[in-house]
Amino acid sequence: MLQNYFNVAFRNLIKHRFYSLINILGLSTGLTCFLLIMLFVADETSYDTFHSDGDRIYRMDFSSTINGSEFISALASAPAAATMVRDFPEVEDAVRIRETGNWLIKKKNDEAVFNEEDVAFVDKNFFEFFDFNLIAGDLATCLSKPNTLVLRKDEAAKIFGGEDPIGQIVSIDNKVDWEVTGVYEVPANSHFDFQMLFSMENRNEAQSKIWTSFNFNTYLKLQEGFDPKELEAKFPALIEKHMGPEVEQFMGATIEEFYEAGNVAGFYLFPLLDIHLKSNKLGELGPNGDIKYVYIFTAIAVFILILACINFMNLSTARSAGRAKEVGIRKVMGAQRPQLINQFLSEAFVITIISIILAFGLSFVTLPLFNELADKAIDPNQLFSITFIGLVFLVLLVVGLLAGSYPAFYLSRFRPIETLKGKLNLGLKGGGLRSVLVILQFSVSIMMLIGTSIVFQQLSYIQNKKLGYSKDHIIMLHDPWIMGDRAESFKNEALQHAMILSGTMSSFLPVNTNDNSNTWFPGANPTKNETYVFHEYRVDHDYMETLEIEMAAGRSFSKDFPSDSATVVVNEAAVRQLGWEKPIGKTLSTHNGSQDSLYITSYKVIGVVKDFHFTSLRDNIEPLVFELGSSRGFVSFKVSSDDIQNTINFLEAKWDEFAPGQPFQYSFLDERFNELYKAEQKLGQIFGVFAFLAIFIACLGLYGLAAFTAEQRTKEIGVRKVLGASIMSIISLLSKEFLKLVGIAFLISAPIAYYFMNSWLQDFENRTDINFLIFLLAGFLAVVIAWITMSFQSWNAARVNPAKSLKDE
Length: 809
What we know:
The chain is α+β, with helices and mostly antiparallel strands. The protein is built from 26 helices and 25 strands. The strands form 3 sheets. Strands 1, 2, 3, 4, 5, 6, 7, 8, 9, 10, 11, 12, 13 and 14 form a 14-stranded mixed sheet that branches. A hairpin with a 3-residue loop joins strand 10 (about 170) and strand 11. Helix 1 (about 1-15) packs across helix 13. The longest helix has about 40 residues, at about 335-375. About 40% of the residues are buried.
């Protein structure tokens, strides 16, 4: 019996090739989208799950609010890890990671120099704490000695080629020799991804006893079965004991007075498995994902799959008139309704199986393009994993039942006497469910069109917003510190080129190149009510000029004033925070020093810059203090737009003169700025692609419904043509009811799209206003696409010779 069902199903597919092709095309497209997005979701939710004790590992984060200044970080202080292991028996182990800037590395006595940015210092128990695969070296001892490091597998191959790296000596920054003691691998789904790990034994700040300096990502492994909330409950006492004396020193107030003034400070435990998707704090070890995007893409996948199933229903019922007599004859011949239901479900499963096979092939072929679109490196073999095969089998059952249930139960209920006499109400007005399904299809499509447009509108707003500084035509040369004391001479000689307008040397540029914060207070001594957390950056005399940052009051740093080494420039946000009406000449102080030796340094305010966006536009402009000092992370040049390549060639030649044999690397400030919004760019692109596919699938369904209606009104069309109706009037007649459905879909989708996209925009402190013209354009585009789709089928129906359509009367 089962074989007979499938034989009949295959015969029907071949007999009705056109409808079968549309069904399979729509369903395979929807399934391909579903599979690709599920691969993305599986990858995003798999981060750090390879650690066997991942559910017991937590990062120790710190956050505070001091006189209105908020500080939220993924960092803890240097002594925190050892203290937690020593004083809290529920903590089984702890490890610290100290991310640093880039380093120059080369094999001893070799000329080839490599610039590596993904570098960190780690505690000696790093490989015992985490489950990274150490493929060479000893877990317990590879980082236990000073001047030892461990290389990632591809980094070791880059430096040593086919040689065994263990025991080899490498030179770091052309100064210090380090011994390679291990080689390791890092899975792609790790929230940190370093190429080199240095022994923490060489990091002096790792021995610091200061609790109010936050530089280390600190991970704790709790004892089996211990509730992290119980440990967090002990943190206030920890802060009072260890940070209390420092708070009194820095703020002139006891910890009790600190809290009474409305300030907040606390350590918190953040689960390792949540870091990638749910953490976006100062001091993250890499760019994380966003759980909201996982939810969004999952919803898109489900909606697109539902749209494809709706197509199946609509196209099946479109053929119902042709199969009504078949149902009637089968019933007259003794077929029972369950048998008919099984027959139609068999057809649905045959189409679903064929579509899934095609979807697997399409997913395999298009995955590289999807990886590029989503900035992923998903392995195509994941499509054939046991977990994914199980998911697809479940999808097969659900889609087969969902797509085939309505046609099966709908067609099998026909009464033989009505089907054989042709007395069936199969028109659009009799197909309320089909109308609802078309409305649902176009509602989803219109929402995705609106969402795509608003994402790109926000990106355009970001790219064109006045930032308060100039980001155009600024070349950033990396690592001028390589030149040592000759860096300033390099800058001055480069400025002699006619196409180079100005230049500055600084580690800080307003594109997340570096960040530093400290406590500042007015006057010479801290007070509990007037100590604030401000961003602070060291810059040279030419910084404001090169970036074209405008002064609101006073002046910038100048070589004409040697005393400027004891001065600062602040932004307008800092002035507002301090409550100063006349800031020029005021005294502003901070704590300086290192490790256990801190002292107060006071500065005179000589200028106020207008507020500019030095962090992401997702954030408000916060208080900022500029100090004059030596900081050689980048040397940046404002250049003429004429023949930029020639200018770059000149800078490279000059670089080779001052830093022979050292890598020449550069980037453009505007490109680095755009990198800040890479997630939004990916979102817009993915939205756009899947919006197009959703509309394509919806149009297939609409085409099926148009074919269904035209088929049922064949004789009506013939009569109208005999009475003189034109083809355009018939097209208008057949299209009118469909356009009403699209209009209803717009009325439903517009407010839903507004709600969700307005919620998304709330992530940006600086955001565009939603332009309601976008809604009208999306609705108009949907109507035009729907009308073109329907007109094609209506045109074919209207061109039929009336004699042919009426010949059986």
